[in-house]
Automatic annotation (TrEMBL), chain A:
Pfam families: BPD_transp_1 (PF00528). InterPro entries: ABC_transporter_permease, MetI-like, MetI-like_sf. One of its GO terms (biological process) is transmembrane transport. Residues 113-327 form the ABC transmembrane type-1 domain. The chain crosses the membrane at residues 53-76, 117-138, 150-170, 198-224, 245-269, 309-331. It comes from the Bacteria. Residues 1-41 are annotated as: Disordered. The keyword Hydrolase does not apply. This is sn-glycerol 3-phosphate transport system permease protein. Keywords: Cell membrane, Membrane, Transmembrane, Transmembrane helix, Transport.
Automatic annotation (TrEMBL), chain B:
It holds the Pfam family SBP_bac_8. Coiled coil: none annotated. Belongs to the bacterial solute-binding protein 1 family. This is sn-glycerol 3-phosphate transport system substrate-binding protein. It is found in: Cell envelope. The keyword Signal applies. GO terms for cellular component: cell envelope. It comes from the Bacteria. Gene3D superfamilies: Periplasmic binding protein-like II. Residues 1-20 form the signal peptide. Keywords: Signal, Transport.
Amino acid sequence: MSRDDLSTERDVSAMSTVSNTTFTERPPDGPVTLTDSGSVSPSVISRWNPRELLLTMLFLAPAVAGLGAFVIFPLFQAVYLATMGSDILGNPTRFVGLQHFAELLTPDFGAVLLRTAGFTLIVVVAGVVLPMALAVPLSQRLPGMRVFRTLFTLPFAYSASAASVVWLLMLNPAMSPVNWLLQLAGVSAPGWTTDSGWALVTVAGVTVWMVSGFNLLVLAAGLAGLDEQVLEAARIDGATGVRNFTSIVLPMISPSLFFVIVTTTLTALQSLGQPQVMTDGGPNGATSTLVYSIFNQAFHNNNSNYGLASAQGLVLLIVGVLLAAVQFGVIERRVHYR
Amino acid sequence: MRTKLGLLACAVAAATAVTACSSAASSGTSPSAGDGLSAPAAGALDGKGETDITFWHAMTGTNGETLKKLTDQFNAANQGKIKVTLAFKNNYDDTLSAYKNALKGGELPDLLQVYDIGTQFMIDSKATVPAQSFIDVDKYDVSDIQPNIAGYYSIGGKLYSMPFNTSMPLLYINKDAFTKAGLDPNKPPTTLDEIKADAQKLTVKDASGNTTQYGFGASLYGWFLEQWTAVAGAQYCNPDNGRNGRATEANFASDNNVKLLNWWKDMVGSGLALKLDSDTKNGDSAFVAGKDAITLESTGSLGDFTKAGFQVGTGFYPKINASDAAGPIIGGASLWIVGKGKDDAHKRAAWEFVKFLETKDSQATWHTSTGYFPVSKGALDTAVDKQWVANKPQFQTAITQLQSTKVTTATQGCLFGVMPQVRKAAESAMQAAVLQGKDAKQALTDAAASLTQPIKDYNDSVK
């Protein structure tokens, strides 16, 4: 059972306790008598009290204003724009109905979605496994581990554009240090950004490098918080090595792991700087992900096709909601909260 | 009540010369009256005190510093009359985006710098004063402007914006590598066949079979495809490169360009050319590092190339066929004077500043400090410029190339409202053919076809 379910149950029981006590303390006349279900909270009693109402609205106002301005309004604006054609400045000028959505039913856009899925998969799998592989040895209490932990966490401080530029230099076809090392090892370097097969992997690789630092931090913290008693009990029971890791350690850090998976998925879905700076969506669209495509339609190359971009944005929203539903509905069931 | 408010709003709008209600309020009157898009007389600044104008530009590094220097010079000479404030807008794309947003409701600059491929869009934005209007009012002598450069920004014989920073494509060679390979370093290749023949001698492999120097290596930059097309004397878009009426169709899927991409594919496939993407920075560093011996780049890269550890030579932009007789198109950016919502003094002040930037002395400073091609013919005859060219004899190639290129619709270049998208699509086709091994004809045809709808949508929306 998930933490949410548990906490809800706890809240409900707490509430009923409160209402029960209220019942015994208050005289049985007044509005309470109207509801005899027994699980009504006391706030219902004063729900229409003007003073309370005013206070409630006052407290809600900042949150609603923020949510309205930055979430609800843009959402409706996107729906509106998605049904409009625009002039050369991007002003919505004519109603086009579902035309922009019809334009999405092409093999090209299908390829964009598929590419986004592939990109996200690479980033999430590598971006979680790699920091995990680093975090486990780093959690050993050995001298110098603090230094390594700090070093491995540093990529976290890079912005997408800065990281992309640095990696472009690292993989520059003329003087790439990476290619030089590969050549020393007798491997001929691939066309990192020119080979369509490699371009997506390269861009995903840079994203993995960027998310690894933060993920390492979270996973290392999870490992540091492990209960020594449980580990000792497991040792006494004879759990060692891989078995110890998969049956004891992994379930115990599963909340951190789940958090890392969710945030990395979102980061991967929203990546723009990496494909924009490193490949500009190329070669021939091979690294054009969903967000790059939205950016391309709305702002790139003097485009102002806000209609099509908004339609694609709504697709991104649906993809995000579906993924979140899967992650919270399926994966979180396996997460063990203490 | 509502109608009254509407009338009041229209009255206010009309009084402040905002065009918002003009269609309702002044239907039938001529569009030039009061739309603010014609040049004011020379006396517009008289008795106005100091007129402050803002100039949006996208010049970085040395270019930005030189622009600042010229602006300071102008401000000092016009103290109490005109003051130009520079506003840096990151890059050409951002400058144009900012302009678009300002048109939708914001503060417009008095003057802005727009890249070559934004020309048709700027005309269609209907908020600028054509340079021709000032030229006519002032009887300004345009004979000093290089005709090929003015040609790009002229449509129907009317100059819309004043050319400023101008560049041109050239062929660059590593002279040391040429000598080592037994080739004449003073005879750069001029055609595809010659590049291939030279590249065969220039490609060097080490003992283990790794290529240490490729014969050829150029970025798959969309601009280059426009240049090859122009050198062949062909139109990049129909009809007439959009120079006589609106272009309706991209025309780059020509047999010539198919031949070019097949050649390029073959060069990369047979190991004679370095595989590069469309990022010219990668192409530049490969050439400077000696990774390839022949490359294509704009005149703007000459300064960086001459700092490389070898002798650099230049040649005319190569031809696809030996019989191709036209020349390349100029690139760069030009200056647009904003008319919408501006009073006569501001328009006039912007024009005075533009005129200053176009003078032969300003252009000589600009050319020798930045490497951009001077817009003014006279600039090339100034002492400072002559000395600079003597130090950089490679630049003489660019001057000769420009002077030997006849102005035709082919060498004026293609105009589209969606030209940035067109360039990007052509670039994708180049990548598809050379990097992905797709059929060149198919790649170019698909790219041209993908543009049909955006071109039509754009043209329909400005009718």
